[in-house]
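Problem: given the chain below (396 residues), write out its structure.
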Amino acid sequence: MRSLVVNCGSSSLKCGLYAVESGERLARGSIDRIGASDATLTCEASGLRESRALETKDHAAALEALCTSIFALSADAAGSEEILAVGHRVVHGGERFSEATLIDGAVEAAIEELAPLAPVHNPLCLRGIRAARKLLPRAQQIAVFDTAFHQTLPEAACLYAVPYDWYERDGVRRHGFHGTSHRWVAARTAARWPDRASRLVVCHLGAGCSTTAILDGRSVDTSMGMTPLEGLVMGTRSGDVDPGVIAFIAKRRGLDIGEVEGILNHESGLLGVSGLSADIRELEGHAAAGHARAELALEIFAHRARKYIGAHHATLGGATAVAFTGGAGENSPSLRSRIMRGLDGLGMFLDTQANSSCKGGEAVISTPASPVALLVVPTDEEQMIAREVHALVSGT
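Solution.
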């Protein structure tokens, strides 16, 4: 039997086809720029690769096109008949969901109720669920929540210093995100470097960014909060900002709360500071060419990441390792170098040659004498989701 993993983005869709029992990935594919005339489908299976332009009006059409290509390329004659379960990455599960969950009407309603806390993400997750249910009606639909890994946060780390009834009556608390990525990196670190995995700081750096302090495999602190807006500087998200700024700028500019929230989510971060781009690779090119605000954006990004690494180091009572993951964390030696600047005082010694030569793949980028190991560990959220789907359907 097979399982399908579905990960919906705002204008993209990623899928992976897995053997349920072995967990082996049989095929993977993606479609970018859904709804645009220049949408592109890419699919890989059995050593074969397909890439072609296509027009897809929405995520439902994109899922159908991608599944057709995946089944054809993987020579899976049974196609949809073999799909036992579809695992969906769902960003916000609140306090209710601490593990992979079979999706029924109540679960779908809960995901929709949590949409205001993840307005960019949860509605997209629902699109993927509904499209998959229509396309694969015989398969079980399973939600794997980004927030689930962080349900082990202690009260001191997950509660805000606001009136306690805000938590009791309204559920105001920190949830954390990127849980499937942090869990994957923690598992890979434990498998590859078991003597360094007990007190781990993971830095997931991409369009969205977060850090997590992981003690013996459990999340005990994380940078994101009740929504994915808190914490590190991100592509278009501000990360931490004085709450007083929201009231000040709303009054000063005559904006309502929704408008300010939209600016903090979509017009801030690297894009807001640089005025150029939300893409770290592009900003590194502009900075190298002497663009002052591109350089400033990258420095603010690195400064905030450094602060969180130091904070997690303290929370853990001394980290044994710091692991970089995510698109930028795995592939940008210069960004890792910026972030680690000055952290040798905490026993984190970067090997500049090992760092510069590592552009993807698992690697140690610290010096042999470094008390804290510095690692690069590529994430695989789809594989992690597939494992959780297998655990649920097999009862393990």
